[in-house]
Amino acid sequence: DTGVSQDPRHKITKRGQNVTFRCDPISEHNRLYWYRQTLGQGPEFLTYFQNEAQLEKSRLLSDRFSAERPKGSFSTLEIQRTEQGDSAMYLCASSLVFGARGDQPQHFGDGTRLSIL
Amino acid sequence: DQQVKQNSPSLSVQEGRISILNCDYTNSMFDYFLWYKKYPAEGPTFLISISSIKDKNEDGRFTVFLNKSAKHLSLHIVPSQPGDSAVYFCAASAVQGAQKLVFGQGTRLTINP
User: How far is C-alpha A45 from the chain's CA centre?
Assistant: First the structure.
């Protein structure tokens, strides 16, 4: 049983550069979530997809951030013109939801740690 | 505005004893609650959950209690084992709609031999 996979595990880049992260969810899961976690805090919601549709974005997600989930499979999160404040752990989670409601847990990947120099 | 709070940043427990981790929430729309365990350099691992229609859920050594009137939940681990040493996060969501999780700040649990 393959879990949620994220790549890369660690990304170091200079301020102003663009970065892209990838998430491969559990194969039968129809929902995919992105969260961000900074030191000493719990993860914070960024955005989520139901199949290929992006249904909600947090106000934490500035215009420099964009996420896609083509064909409802893997997802990418891109950050343009990175800033020091973007340094964080970016976590992806997936779940299987039936209909409009569901009480199924989200399962997380190991995250991508972004360090901005 | 912290909707989910874990007021104890750390907890130290003797091996074999009970560990009790606490969590408070403020949003009445939350009706699904989860506990995650996190080791360094890994993502959160799902432990146990509870729906608001219940007040208790058990899974092996782990039991979650929900007190809706007090907007409080707790995780009991008994007996505690050294491998339980980790950071524990409480999370809450509304079952309808996005089901986005709102997390507490975490409690670092240390099990002493």
Answer: 9
